[in-house]
Amino acid sequence: TSVAAPTAAAAATSTSSADAAAKPAPVAAAQAKESTTEATPMQVDDPSASSAPSKPSKAEREQQRQKEQASAKEKQKLLNFKQLLIEKGVRSFDKYEKWLPKLMHDPRFTAISNQAERKAVFAAYAKRIDADRQKQELEKKHAGRDGLKELLKQIEDSGWLDNKTKGEAIKLIDRKFGEDPRWSKVKEADRERYVGEAVEELAKRRKKQQDEARLGFRALAMEVLKGKAGPKGYPDF
Q1: How many CB atoms lie within 10 A of CB 100?
Q2: Three-state DSSP class for 235?
Q3: Would you state the pLDDT for residue 76?
Q4: 149 class by beta-carbon count within 10 Å (0-12 exposed, 13-18 middle, 19+ buried)
């Protein structure tokens, strides 16, 4: 009996293999696929597995805020350092040792505490300081020009430039607006030039308005005369 059982099992296996071999290939493949599908359970996505990233904690937000503040502080130190060099008159490629005694007591200089870092920053800024100075002066000039034009427009709208020469307008503005930075911060030569241009432009506009009014009156008078003309074409007064 112990020998017969394995023989029967082997016979069954052999019979199954023979049946599989006897079946057409497409049928066998379909059955194999079905058995695999039944053996492998379907995977269902878990909505909670792909949740949105969590918001930073209070401690993380505070750490980020402190980092941004430190970065802004360092940037401001460098800007103050560069402004100090510009104000003191440092020229391109000036030596650090030459300027050290003149700068060492300014807090904008000592704000950069490391000596080697100060020297490196000085050298970097000194290379392009002339260009930075010219840029600042140009920006300042443009700002002053825009401010003065704004002031002149305000004065013109008030009628204080009507029938004024350039000299009369300058005296009037100096008396009424002498403390206004839009006037006082601009160089005298530039003030005279801009006031002269404003007075000249105003005079041109006034003349144009007068000419247009004169032409309009003349056209109106001709229409009136045509309406009153007699039979021979002469005015019937």
Answers
A1: 14
A2: strand
A3: 93
A4: middle
**pTM for the complete prediction?**
0.40
- Contact by Cβ (8 Å): 81, 112: yes
Please report, as a single letter, which amino acid is at residue 49: A
Cβ atoms of residues 130 and 92 within 8 Å: yes
Residues 6+ apart with CB under 8 A from 121: 78, 81, 112
Could you give the CA distance from residue 88 to residue 91 in angstroms, rounded to a whole number?
9
Residue 123: CB atoms within 10 A of its CB come to 13
For residue 85 the two structure tokens come to 């060099």
Measured CA to CA, the distance from residue 133 to residue 90 in angstroms comes to: 10
Asked if residue 7 has pLDDT above 60, the reply is no
174-206 per-position pLDDT tens digit: 898 888 888 888 888 888 998 998 888 888 888
Mean pLDDT over each residue of the chain, to the nearest integer: 76
Pick from 69, 82, 136: nearest CA to 108:
82
For residue 229, the 8-state DSSP code is: B
Cβ neighbours for 172, distance < 8 A, ≥ 6 positions apart: 160, 164
Tell me the torsion sign for CA atoms 59, 60, 65, 67: positive
**Residue 214 above 80 pLDDT?**
yes
Task: Compute φ and ψ for 229, nearest 5 degrees.
Answer: -70, 145
